[in-house]
Automatic annotation (TrEMBL):
<keyword id="KW-0813">Transport</keyword>
<dbReference type="Pfam" id="PF02320">
    <property type="entry name" value="UCR_hinge"/>
</dbReference>
<keyword id="KW-0679">Respiratory chain</keyword>
<keyword id="KW-0249">Electron transport</keyword>
<keyword id="KW-0999">Mitochondrion inner membrane</keyword>
<dbReference type="InterPro" id="IPR003422">
    <property type="entry name" value="Cyt_b-c1_6"/>
</dbReference>
<keyword id="KW-0472">Membrane</keyword>
<dbReference type="InterPro" id="IPR036811">
    <property type="entry name" value="Ubol_cytC_Rdtase_hinge_dom_sf"/>
</dbReference>
<feature type="region of interest" description="Disordered">
    <location>
        <begin position="21"/>
        <end position="64"/>
    </location>
</feature>
<feature type="domain" description="Ubiquinol-cytochrome C reductase hinge">
    <location>
        <begin position="58"/>
        <end position="120"/>
    </location>
</feature>
<dbReference type="GO" id="GO:0005743">
    <property type="term" value="C:mitochondrial inner membrane"/>
</dbReference>
<comment type="similarity">
    <text>Belongs to the UQCRH/QCR6 family.</text>
</comment>
<keyword id="KW-0496">Mitochondrion</keyword>
<dbReference type="GO" id="GO:0006122">
    <property type="term" value="P:mitochondrial electron transport, ubiquinol to cytochrome c"/>
</dbReference>
<dbReference type="InterPro" id="IPR023184">
    <property type="entry name" value="Ubol_cytC_Rdtase_hinge_dom"/>
</dbReference>
<feature type="compositionally biased region" description="Acidic residues">
    <location>
        <begin position="27"/>
        <end position="58"/>
    </location>
</feature>
<protein>
    <recommendedName>
        <fullName>Ubiquinol-cytochrome C reductase hinge domain-containing protein</fullName>
    </recommendedName>
</protein>
Length: 121
C-alpha cells in the first residue's frame, strides 16, 4: 500500500495519529432557579461585550505547514521513503520510522518557533 499525497500536511496527520486530542466536555445542564435580582444595566452591557470578543486566529498551523513544505523537505522525504519501505514489507522486522518522524518534528519545531515568537511581539 503506497502513501498518497493529500491536501493535509504530513506533520498534522502524524501528530493527530501519535498525539491524542483532548476535547472539552459540554457543561451539564442544571435546573435554573429564577431569582429576582436587581442589576444595574451597565453591568449587563459590560458582560455582553466580554462575551462577544473572539480569540485571535492561530497562526501556528500555517507557519508549521510552510516550514514543512520548504525548510524540512529533506526530512519529510526520508520519512516518506521509510514509511513506503515499511508498508511495502521491505523494512527489517519491527521497523517503525519513529526516528524519521522525530527528525521531521524537530525540523518543523526549530523552523516555526522563531517565526511564531516574532508574531507574538
Amino acid at each position: 500500500m503506497a502513501i498518497e499525497e493529500t491536501s493535509t500536511s504530513l506533520f498534522s496527520t502524524l501528530t493527530s495519529f501519535f498525539l491524542p486530542t483532548a476535547h472539552a466536555e459540554a457543561p451539564e445542564e442544571e435546573e435554573v432557579v429564577e431569582e429576582v435580582v436587581e442589576e444595574e444595566p451597565a453591568e449587563e452591557e459590560e458582560e455582553e461585550e466580554e462575551e462577544e470578543e473572539e480569540d485571535p486566529e492561530d497562526l501556528a498551523p500555517a507557519i508549521r505547514d510552510d516550514c514543512e513544505a520548504n525548510e524540512c523537505q529533506d526530512a519529510g522525504k526520508h520519512f516518506k521513503h521509510c514509511a513506503e519501505k515499511v508498508e511495502g514489507g521491505k523494512g527489517w522486522e519491527g521497523e517503525d520510522c519513529v526516528e524519521e518522524l522525530f527528525h521531521v518534528m524537530h525540523c518543523v519545531d526549530a523552523c516555526a518557533a522563531p517565526k511564531l515568537f516574532k508574531k507574538l511581539a
